[in-house]
Amino acid sequence: MICATSLLVACTPAEISSPPISVTPTNKAHAVGLDVYAGPRRRGNPVPKFRGQETIAVRSSAIVSDGKRKELSGVPCTLDSGLYTASFVTPANLVVPDYGPNSPAIFIRCISEDQSGSKTINAFNATTQKRMCGASAGGLIGVLVVGAVTAARADPEKGEFAYPPTTVLLRPKK
């Protein structure tokens, strides 16, 4: 596992100046706010625990003539998890519900006039990642020890989960 505290790039990412965009539940009758499982939970069904909300930064980029990636702004995109959707233009901050280890995969599709791209992102256990990144300072032995302790004590229901910031790479349409 490689842990990076910063990423050096040739250009500065576009500022996300638009307000955050909240997703829309696909079944509004079951939802309360962002919690898509509120109705079934109220009726006693065993559904994932609502932990609040997460914000995901979504950007788009394309390979330009010199072979380098260039961030694109104003590209229309859609997000779909099966439980909620959103339409937005990049770059954007999207507000999604947090269900910890039960957070669904998110499919993002961006389409411009002559390019398109898509990406699926999954929530990851940020608690475990933080522990492993801290252990990496102790070298291989530190990673092995912390990895063993983390595996023995891992309780995904108590861990903090998050979606990574993501960039959708657009390619020419065929």
Report on this structure.
The protein is of the alpha+beta class. 18% of the residues lie in helices and 34% in strands. Strand 5 (76-80) and strand 6 (84-89) form a beta hairpin. Helix 2 (126-136) packs antiparallel against helix 3. Residues 1-10 have low confidence and may be disordered.
Brief rundown of the structure:
By secondary structure, the protein is of the alpha+beta class.
Query: CA-to-CA gap between the ends?
Result: 36 Å
* Silhouette: elongated
**What structural class do the secondary elements suggest?**
alpha+beta
Rounded to an integer in angstroms, the radius of gyration calculated over CA atoms is 19 Å
Short key terms for the protein model shown above:
ten-stranded mixed β-sheet; two-stranded antiparallel ribbon; 34% strand; 3 helices; 174 residues; disordered N terminus
Furnish the topology, listing elements before pairings.
Elements: E1 21-22, E2 24-25, H1 38-42, E3 53-63, E4 69-72, E5 76-80, E6 84-89, E7 92-97, E8 106-111, E9 115-121, E10 124-125, H2 126-136, H3 139-153, E11 161-162, E12 166-172
Parallel strand pairs: 1-7, 3-12
Antiparallel strand pairs: 2-6, 3-4, 3-7, 5-6, 5-8, 8-9, 9-12, 10-11
Helix pairs in contact: 2-3
